[in-house]
Amino acid sequence: MTVQYDLIVLGAGPVGENVADAATAAGLTCVVVESELVGGDCSFWACVPSKALLRPPSARDAARRVDGAKQAVSGPLDVAAVLARRDSFVSDWDDSGSLPWLESVGIDLVRGHGRITGERRVEVTTADGETVVLEANHAVAVCTGSAARVPNIPGLADAQAWTSRDATSVQNVPASLAILGGGVVAAEMATAFVALGSAVTVIARSGLLAGLEDFAGEAVGKRLRSDGATILGDSPVSVNRTGSGKVSIELDSGDTVTAAELLVATGRTPRTTDIGLESIGLTPGDWLSVDDSLRVDGVDWLYAVGDVNSRVLLTHQGKYQGRAAGRAIAARVSAPKTQAEPWGDLAASADHERVPFVIFSEPQVASVGLTAEAAAGAGYRTRVVDYDLGAVSGAGLHADGYEGFARMVVDEDRGVVIGVTFVGADVAELLHAATIAVVGEVPLTRLWHAVPAFPTMSEIWLRLLETYRAGE
């Protein structure tokens, strides 16, 4: 059976859904192909379940930071209730609730594994072994995302180690957990499992949250240690699942870490190994290089959106790319030579130096734009403004003894903010104001007139600007 559509989308996660939605809204016919669950990793194994696991300890800690409330909160978390609440957010890994939306906006769904077999042609092998052939009148969008990268460490492949999927879908919290890696997944899952009662050991050769402002990893590491976690700056040289069922990790220091489970959180790899890229002259297993309209370099009908292009591996940025790609595809149907202009609807311009993200550790880390080091490396003439977030009156009211920190990176030549990082309890809610300042390139002379409400933590903006002015 061969079916024609204007657009074929491989992957029905949030990114693929946004590509299809934008294109369908512009009048194109669309089909999405999905081999697992509609909603993808974000909905079932990543963003949603991880934050569902992290929210109960965060809410408990928020109460414990306020005298008068902390007396009402005692005892450990109810682990069974935490996991049950997580299960409710992932609908017990049932995607039937996602299907009515697809139907309501006119997007067709084909379940099965899709492979590109030629120009604008996709063959889908369904669960029962049948083959459905799809032909695109205009474009194919690859939105297959990424998977956990498992490093080549002797014994690791046979040790039945966890990836982030196993951690976020856990049904029985292990007594002990070793985490290999120091990035976002490692920081968040260490935070969650310490709170759930596991003895956690983080093995991070480069330390926690390398690549961010130094104070971010230092603050998260300090809190994890105070909660009983161990953080080691070593590298594993071998891994073994022992006869007792535990995992033994030999380190280059000569020490050995033993834990009930091992979580590998050492980065991501593109899901492009078995989608037929070789049929159109591309290399399976590679990230797909794209322009700002998310069109694959050298293939005018193929788009790669979200993690698979390696620009920004974040769901909200992938959805942003999806909106741009869907509109660009639709625009090129009527005008094939349409180019995506910077800051227009058809380009993902913010994916270069203006990316916002939150790490839901304790404390939270919220950042947008460039770090001080990255800005200097990119050639900007900068001034870095630091401020103790705990000294802001709104923060003191928010939590007794509030500890936090803020950094603003200013492009001195243009007088605009190009990077902001906040560390502290609940700083995620400060991030969008920073994102608007950075993406909108709001001049500091104008930003001075954006008056923060009293008494809120947003007063940090006034303090940062005052500190900047005092240094003029």
UniProtKB/TrEMBL annotation:
Residues at which FAD binds: K51, G114, T144, G145, S146, D307
Binding of NAD(+), residues: G181, G182, G183, V184, V185, A186, A187, E188, G267
Cofactor dependency: FAD
Residue intervals of the Pyridine nucleotide-disulphide oxidoreductase dimerisation domain: 355-461
Single GO MF annotation: NAD(P)H dehydrogenase (quinone) activity
Gene3D superfamilies the UniProt entry points to: 3.30.390.30, FAD/NAD(P)-binding domain
Disulphide bonds in the chain: C42-C47
Cofactor binding summary note: Binds 1 FAD per subunit.
Domain of life: Bacteria
Keywords, ordered alphabetically: FAD, Flavoprotein, NAD, Nucleotide-binding
Domain FAD/NAD(P)-binding: start-end pairs: 5-322
Recorded family membership: Belongs to the class-I pyridine nucleotide-disulfide oxidoreductase family.
Stored PANTHER family: MERCURIC REDUCTASE (PTHR43014:SF2)
Name of the protein: NAD(P)/FAD-dependent oxidoreductase
Organism: Mycetocola zhadangensis
